[in-house]
Amino acid sequence: MLHYFGWLPAKRKKRKKHGMRGKPFVPVKWDQTHETKEEFAAKMRAHPTRLERILKANLRSAMKGENLAVNYQSVQFGYILDAYIPALRLAFEADGPFHNKAYDDKRDGHLLKYSIRTVRFTQRELQGSPQNVIRIIKTQIRARQAAFSCSAM
After folding, report:
1. Residue 137's closest CA among 75, 79, 70?
2. What is the helix (H) or strand (E) element at residue 76, kind and residue range?
3. 10-24, 36-50, 105-119: range with lowest mean pLDDT
4. DSSP characters over 79-136
5. CA distance 16 to 58
6. Among candidates 85, 75, 71, which has minimal Cα distance to 119?
7. CA–CA separation, 10 and 7 (whole Å)
8. I need a surface site. Which of 10, 70, 94, 112 has the fewest CB within 10 A?
């Protein structure tokens, strides 16, 4: 069948899914046989999820004026943490729609043995109320700073 321009329309090519800034989206899975957790964490730092980017932006907003280092996709005691403040032993996690609650509870309990407090944010919290997320981050940082200053005395 001829189109009124005199040619058949070509089949449309599927568009590549693009991440932030035009980079192609690369789904990342950990393959235990070929890489260490540190190498996998480096891949995750290079290709953060949308929720991890939102968490990072909220952390930056909340920590203005604070003189604290934040490590993103940091390996601590066998687990990869989305954001970790080593000076306060405080971790922040962005929980997407496919998080396993039982595994997260086990992991948080294991990290708590090493005095690492984990603060989790759901997808709805991160996308819906950034001001509330920033307020929670500030509150947790102040609480940990107070706890660490009391224990130093």
Report:
1. 70
2. strand 71-76
3. 10-24
4. EEEEEEETTTTEEEEEE-TT--HHHHHHHHHHHHHTT-EEEEEEHHHHHH-HHHHHHH
5. 29
6. 85
7. 9
8. 10
pTM of the model: 0.75
| Angle at which helices 50-62 and 130-152 cross, to 10° | 60
User: What's the pLDDT at 141?
Assistant: 93
CA atoms within 13 A on the CB side of 86: 9
2 against 144, higher pLDDT: 144
The pLDDT, as a whole number, for residue 17 is 53
The confidence band for 4, taking pLDDT boundaries of 50, 70 and 90, is very low
Contacts of residue 119, defined as CB under 8 A and 6 or more positions apart, other chains included, come to 90, 91, 92, 93, 136, 137, 140
Q: At 74, which helix (H) or strand (E)? A: strand 71-76
Q: What is the pLDDT of residue 122?
A: 92
Distances (CA, A) of 13 to 8, 16, 17, 64, 126: 15, 9, 12, 45, 34
